[in-house]
Amino acid sequence: MDSDDYAFPTRMEEQLGVLLGGHLDMVGSQVAEFVTAPDEPIAESSLPCDSKDIEAYSKKRNPFRHPTMVFRKSRALQAGNYSGE
User: Fold this and answer.
1) pLDDT in tens, 37-59
2) 3-state SS of the chain?
3) Taking the model in full, what pTM does it have?
4) For a designed S-S bond to 68, which of 21, 28, 50, 80 qualifies (C-beta 3.0 to 4.6 A apart)?
């Protein structure tokens, strides 16, 4: 997350709960953009949640918002590691 990002207090707990549930390798969330107040969004994302929709969307745009992502390290290493390049 960047210094100007805001996360709901239970976001990490909820995402880790889903990840630790065992059937997913990465979990992210939608985002809302705001200027001064997090409870007054000026735009909200509408990202795909289904694997087929994610695959189709990824051909045009990035279907993930990096500040919201948590994933299994083992799966990232298995896929060739994570490169920031």
Assistant:
1) 888 999 999 999 999 999 999 99
2) CCCCCCCCCCHHHHHHHHHHCCCCCEECCCCEECCCCCCCCCEECCCCCCHHHHHHHHCCCCCCCHHHCEECHHHHHHCCCCCCC
3) 0.76
4) 28
